[in-house]
Amino acid sequence: MAKVMVDGQVALGFESVKRCFEKEVSRSAETNVQLCVYHRGEKVVDLWASKTADTSFNADSIVNVFSSSKNLEALAMASLVDQGLLDYGQTIASYWPEFSANGKSELTVADLMRHEAGLAALEISLDPNDLRTDCIKANAIGRQLESHALHYENPERSKREYHAITRGWIVNEVYRRIDPKGRTIGEFLREDIAVPLGIDVLLGLT
């Protein structure tokens, strides 16, 4: 197992985290890795490593967080609830009427948020260009989701299937139809969270 040089620092008492991080990075498939931990409001771990000795990679490098973006989606939807604009118990179609096609009229926002929307795997391919903000606002993704039918792998056992990739696309379409400014979740994140708090986080393609 090749030893990987780890940069950064840990607070007193958290040295074992650095040792564990170094060990896990050495045997993982990832090339560049970061770990930052706050404990009781204080940053106690701030580590990063590159298996390829990439000197441009550091604590401030932007990386893909994959499914952790679902937390950001949840924040966006919760902000609408907080404003009295969204009720998780309401159907998606009550906010987005065209979504009701092909058996989706009874799906609630709660069904979507807890991965029970029957759209875990789409039977269509999306054009990456359609994921640009301007195309999303032109309903390029929405149109395809509107016409898509429900599919549950084993509905007798459970309707819960991890919407690994698809949930963000659907939640974004619901969000932008309710947000008073008609924003995507990526725009909400930038304007209401990232810029005011000085956070390097973004959703969406440029």
Please describe what this structure looks like:
The model has no long low-confidence stretch (mean pLDDT 93). A three-stranded antiparallel sheet has the order 1-3-2, covered by helices on one side. The protein is elongated. The protein is built from seven helices and three strands; from the N terminus they run βαββαααααα. Helix 2 packs parallel to helix 6. It is of the alpha+beta class.
Task: Characterize this entry briefly.
The chain is α+β, with helices and mostly antiparallel strands and 206 residues long.
List the helices and strands and how they pair.
Blueprint: E1 6-10, H1 15-27, E2 32-39, E3 42-50, H2 69-82, H3 109-113, H4 133-137, H5 140-147, H6 166-178, H7 185-197
Antiparallel strand pairs: 1-3, 2-3
Helix pairs in contact: 2-6
Uncertain regions spanning at least 5 consecutive residues:
none
| Net shape | elongated
Q: Secondary-structure element order, as H and E? A: EHEEHHHHHH
Average per-residue pLDDT, rounded, comes to: 93
- Tally of strands: 3
Strand order of the largest sheet: 1-3-2
Secondary-structure content class: alpha+beta
Distance between the termini: 39 Å
The share of residues in helices is: 25-40%
SS strand fraction: 5-15%
Biggest sheet statistics: 3 strands, antiparallel
User: Compute the gyration radius: what is it?
Assistant: 20 Å
Give the number of helices.
7
Task: Please name the defining characteristics of this protein.
elongated, 11% strand, 7 helices, alpha+beta, 34% helix, 3 strands, 206 residues
